[in-house]
Design brief:
The chain is mainly beta. It is 9% helix and 52% strand.
């Protein structure tokens, strides 16, 4: 009885399912709390999930968001464009706009001179590239490689002083406590692969969870809390720059108490008064409980 499932079966049964959640609360109030009032996206897909949301367009009627789409059959991430109804948060349209042989995720949006550019994570390729968003054909067109480093969830950070940087962790330790800061040429969209700073945190909160944002001229950075596991939670960190020194101070953190997506969060972004996050749960929660019961029985027999 205890060997009903193969190792592969157990991995499938314990697989995750992610979804997007939206909040209309004021960001200044959100960072003073440790709770998130989330409206989860409604959709009928069961063979895939959506995560790493970046807001492209927000109106009273609809939300256009770029995400990682992960199809269980393909076992890799692709970049998709979703259209979500604003009044009821129902997914109306889904289109894959970028697929590569290697895994894609975290589609960072960078806007310059009226154009939209996207810099998705593609660390398995060994580098990172930037793409131009084509709104007519609804696709991403590659411009060039930004750098030849296996960056993980890299973000473009723009200081009010006019200096631009890339904040990122990288392989082989994407979920650790080391954050690299690289100079970034915002005009030509190339990075200097020699970091200007290496920041060490006291715990595993280095990985980005979304774009940095400002409240009253103070910069904040959403960071992933990877101490318990990947996707455990989100920290909001105050960011200050003193010369070539970058100082991060944790203001608050969010860990899921939502029964529908109880395993945690790992992305936090905003646009036009709307905040988007993602949450995850087990794809087959009842089977996970059953596997846990079998595990306990096995331990009792030892």
């Amino acid at each position: 009885m205890l060997n009903i499932f193969s190792k592969k079966d157990r991995m499938i049964l314990r697989s995750d399912m992610w979804n997007l959640g939206f909040m209309t609360d004021d960001i200044a109030d959100v960072i003073k709390s440790d709770k998130l009032n989330i409206h989860w996206m409604k959709h009928s897909y069961t063979d895939r999930w959506f995560a790493d949301p970046y807001l492209l367009e927000v109106t009273d009627k609809q939300i256009v968001v770029l995400v990682e789409e992960f199809c269980y059959k393909l076992r890799k991430g692709r970049i998709a464009r979703l259209v979500v109804s604003r009044p009821d948060y129902v997914l109306q349209e889904m289109k894959i706009i970028l697929e590569l042989p290697t895994h894609l995720s975290f589609p960072v949006i960078y806007q310059k001179d009226g154009e939209v550019y996207v810099m998705p994570e593609n660390s398995k390729s060994g580098g990172i590239s930037i793409y131009k968003y084509n709104p007519q054909n609804i696709c991403l067109e590659k411009l060039h490689e930004v750098g030849k480093l296996p960056l993980t969830d890299a973000t473009i950070v723009q200081f009010t002083s006019g200096e631009d940087y890339i904040f990122s962790t990288k392989l082989p330790n994407p979920n650790g406590n080391e954050l690299q800061v690289y100079p970034f040429d915002g005009k030509e969209m190339f990075m200097d692969e020699n970091p200007i700073a290496n920041v060490s945190f006291q715990s595993n909160v280095a990985r980005n969870a979304g774009d940095a944002f400002y409240i009253d001229e103070q910069m904040y950075r959403p960071a992933q809390d990877c101490n318990k596991c990947y996707g455990n939670g989100i920290e909001i960190q105050k960011v200050n720059k003193e010369g070539k020194t970058f100082v991060f101070e944790t203001i608050t953190s969010f860990h899921s108490d939502n029964p529908d997506y109880s395993l945690g969060y790992h992305t936090f972004n905003m646009k036009n008064g709307l905040i988007v996050v993602d949450g995850h749960r087990f794809r087959f929660p009842r089977m996970v409980k059953f596997l846990g019961l079998l595990h306990n029985i096995r331990n009792l027999k030892k």
